[in-house]
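User: As part of a screening pipeline, I want to sanity-check one entry by hand. Below is the sequence and the SMILES for flavin-adenine dinucleotide. Please return the complex as structure tokens so I can compare it with the automated output.
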Amino acid sequence: MTERAAQAAFDERHRIVIVGGGAGGLELATRLGDRLGRRGRAQVILIDKARAHLWKPLLHEVAAGSMDMGHHELDYLAQAHWHHFGYRVGKMVGLDRRRREVQVAPVLDESGIEVTPKRVFAYDTLVIAVGSVSNDFGTPGVADYAMALDTPEEAKRFHRRLVDACIRAHAQAGPIRPEQLRIAIVGAGATGVELAAELHRTTRELVAYGLDRIDPEKDVHIHVIEAAERILPALPERLSKGIEELLRALAVEVHTAARVAEVSAQGLRLVGGQQIAAELVVWAAGVKAPEVLAHLDGLECNRINQLVVRPTLETTRDSNIFALGDCAACPWLGNAGNIPPRAQAAHQEASHLVRMLERRLAGKPLRPFRYRDFGSLVSLGKYSTIGNLMGALVGGSVRVEGTFARLMYLSLYKMHELALHGFAKVALDTFARLITRRTEPIVKLH
Ligand SMILES: Cc1cc2nc3c(=O)[nH]c(=O)nc-3n(C[C@H](O)[C@H](O)[C@H](O)COP(=O)(O)OP(=O)(O)OC[C@H]3O[C@@H](n4cnc5c(N)ncnc54)[C@H](O)[C@@H]3O)c2cc1C
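Assistant: Here is the complex for your manual check:
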């Protein structure tokens, strides 16, 4: 082949564009880059509105201050360089299906100066993996007075306000006001429950670093508010009861069958009229897919903006476009309803799509995705980890607790890291983190 013919073949490569480099999208881009990009069999491009990736299930630890983000963030540019895919920064704002182009908004810096202009990216195959955001169900006051944990920036902002609240209470001349040092977490799914337990520990550790005018037992109050009859409604009742008892033992105030009517600067008002005073309100009461998906050039979406996909993960109205992870409404074969929005689902879907996109390039038919639920684990930080494991290996559904459950919980993140970095780098990183943990405060203080 002449040099010119080789260049033409290179330029004609199949273009796979992935929008969203989260739990699912970044694993997909990495593995496709290694398998197809490296050998020039396809051009793989990842578009993300952020510049660095942090695995979302770590966000409650960032918010509580038990994790330093810097040790876990991954630069998209570096990952793209190492794994033979291209990375473009920017937020997808539209789509032209006829021209097969993704439209991306300009990127501005903090001073409003343009970094990249409005751009379009052409694709042959498009994978949308933009995740989800919290759903406030139109509740008044949430946008102004509550914080979500959808992005690392939001988790960091919550943590800063938590530290500020403790320093303010320690430094002020007068007594602590009724709403001060009270935290209300709306939604007792895994995020809300895990955050409550982490906050119980980290507020005590924070105060122990010299903020001695605060008595955590008396002054710090954590409320968890859940609209359902019990916390963790997605878990078996036995487990949710056990975890509720643990939370109550930590003096976390649990309110079930309690619907929030309004959030204000003073805290919350419940539908029955009860007021819960709170200085910090976290909204973790359900998810929906980002608004942009509701207007994506006629692609079918459901009432929470998720793109409706076939079991092959192709969108129902365009077989050149796939969706995975939280933003996809994919039927759960063999079960009623859709696959739940979980990191383990995004991970499995990414692995499935790696194989299916290779088949697509080879002109072979696609196979349906079958989700395997390995169970759910809830980490109460250093206090406990509880959950149920499912599957043939353990013979159905088995309750697990303690060290074994903690190891299983950590293994989900390790699987994500292994998919991104391979064994040697994960082993080195884990070792490095073990060392730095011994030389730093056990809670982030700024
Ligand atoms: C605090 C917390 C704890 C959790 N704990 C668990 C757990 O223990 N176990 C579990 O299974 N799941 C857990 N989850 C859920 C889990 O994080 C999600 O199910 C998972 O991250 C979904 O992966 P994803 O790839 O679909 O989306 P995400 O991981 O959310 O990634 C989406 C990506 O898309 C990018 N993006 C968004 N919009 C655009 C746009 N318009 N243009 C360009 N880029 C865009 C974002 O920047 C992000 O990088 C937790 C979630 C939270 C918030």
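Points to compare against the pipeline: Residues 179 and 279 are 5 Å apart (CA to CA). The chain has a mean pLDDT of 91.
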